[in-house]
Amino acid sequence: MTHSPGSKNFRLAILGCGFMGTALLSGIIKALGDSPREQIKFSVSAPSQTSIQRLQQAFSSHRDQVDSITTDNVDAASGSDIIILAFQPQQLTGVLSDSALLQALQDKLIISVLAGVSSRQIIEAVYTSSELTRQSRVSRVIPSIGAQINESASLIAETSLSQSDRDLVAWLFQLVGRTVVVPEELIDTATAVSAACHALTIVAADAIVDGSVAEGIPRPIALDIASQSLRSSASMLQGHATIESLKDSLSIAKGITVNALLQLERGNMRSGISDAVRHAAQYAQAMSSGNE
Q1: Does residue 28 sit in the same domain as residue 141?
Q2: How many domains would you assign to the chain?
Q3: What is the pLDDT of residues 173-216, one digit of tens each?
Q4: I want to staple 140 with a disulfide (CB 3.0 to 4.6 A). Which of 56, 110, 157, 243 is the partner?
């Protein structure tokens, strides 16, 4: 793998390229555009011919970049510098039982996006006991669905990577959105918060649109208003305002916003949302420990 201060030149493989792998690849390609400074090639693997056809169709206009689409994990990994593990978490043992694939993974930067699978599990599956004494090159990242439109909230676990590998992982996932570094013991909980936030936002937007339509606003207009309002509020909270200051600025005396908030509180909205987030966090912790 060759790096220079202003450019990057490597091959990246995504093994088990399902929905999240496709979203990541789409976002990375979109972010890179036609930049001559990043000469990145991609190999992807998928478990079936149906998946292969889906990927070929999805990246038909980028075959100069995505130049290898195969059902063979070994083939995808062998010539690559960075490997993203993107198959289903329950497939970990089966996929990494292939000795040829383990050989192909040696000395390469491995990034796992598998929910509920610790970096230690990856390390122990990839390296022999004698190799565990040296510094492994395994990172754990949980991207979000927004990766496909370069709006991911990617959670990067704190692991014992070299500084150059940490920088490379951060750069790669910053291409598809924002990144947050999280202690690995908290990453399952943080993943649950992200998942719950997406779910609650979708439900909230749906309810807002339905209420708007009931009051006579056409659905497409209501959806535009709701989605942009959610986006602007989220953007304001990313370094521009605190929750308290934003609430204060919107809640003027006898205003529409404060009356809407009071009505929401009558339905125990705040405790309902908190309970949903805590339930998601507890479920994620149970899933990680195999007790779900």
Answers
A1: yes
A2: 2
A3: 999 999 999 999 999 899 888 888 888 889 989 999 999 999 99
A4: 157
Q: Confirm whether 183 is domain-assigned.
A: no
- Annotation-wise, does 89 bind a ligand? yes
Q: Is 88 annotated as a binding residue?
A: yes
* pLDDT tens digits, 246-257: 878 777 788 888
What does the alpha-carbon distance between residue 131 and residue 34 come to, in Å, rounded to a whole number? 40
- pTM given for the model: 0.82
Q: How far apart, in whole angstroms, are the C-alpha atoms of residue 171 and residue 136?
A: 19
Contact 115, 195 (CB under 8 A): no
Is 19 annotated as belonging to a binding site? yes
Residue span of the structural domain in which 201 resides: 191-289
Q: What is the CATH number of the domain that holds 38?
A: 3.40.50.720
151 and 46 belong to one structural domain: yes
Whether 87 has a binding-site annotation, put simply, is yes
Q: How far apart are CA 52 and CA 35, in angstroms?
A: 27
Please check whether residues 153 and 71 belong to one and the same domain.
yes
205 is in an annotated binding site: no
Which one-letter amino acid corresponds to residue 154?
Answer: S
Same domain, yes or no: 59 and 171: yes
